[in-house]
Give the backbone structure.
Amino acid sequence: MDTVKYSFLKLFLLGSLLILASPFAVAQCIGVVTAGGGQGFWADVGKGARQAGQELGLAVYVRGAVDESNIAAQRSLINVMIDKGCTGLVLAPNTKERQNDVEILKAQGIPTVFIDRDIGGDRVSVIKTNNFRAGQLAGKEMVKALNGKGQVAVLRSNKNIPTTTSRERGFIKEAINGGLEVTVDYYLGTMIGDARSRAFEIFDSADHIDGVFTPNEVTTMATIAALGTTNDRSLITHIGFDSSDYMVKALQSDQIFGFVVQRPFDMGYQGVYTVHQVMLGNNVDKNIDTNVIFVNKDKLVQTEIKQVLGIN
């Protein structure tokens, strides 16, 4: 009887070791660390990531810093994910310093997928918008709205953020090519309160502005609020970027001309699925481009737009 028990115990332990060694057993927890600078956008990323986790039967933890420029906070959140035992990471890096972190994680057998932006390094895949082209789309819509003539302002976010910088470059190139003149070029910052105050000062002191481009959720919401305190709201064509409930309501009430919308839900969803596939030992696409759409008031009745914006 003892021999039978011992044989069974050996088989049980061997089976346990095989399960632990199986690639299907290692990806039970995936961490998703977002950047700051747009809580509506990152909330949708989180929704997509959690949906993927639910479908895959994985625990997915989503965390993000409030301020995009807070490099130390994001590093701490990565540590939190590792302490939780997560064996895969989906990351929106807010500094090139993250390359070192990703290299260390790789050495520990933890793969990293970048979303929203790419800083190079040992990431296994990048899922993001082509931000330069997205900026060009905003520029084309501005040229069309102003009939190819006028003075525009580019109210930037932060020079150290590659995503918004690419959008700004794309917009400026297309605006100038289309006959517009960029007369105001200013950084608003990453915190909405400061950005709103700076935007108000610009509109209060500028001689003439026909249009304004803002490259993300924070700068867009801040500019909507700042324009609401001026007498020139109806005279300035404002094209923003990303979306939130506040921005949709502003569009419905003609407080903004339109905005370029990304697919944050898809970024989170595909990010979790992609890193999970890597943990299973499967090959994945190195670059996945998510589409963007320009939304104005007239398009709010379209089914696709309603789905992207999450409105009825």
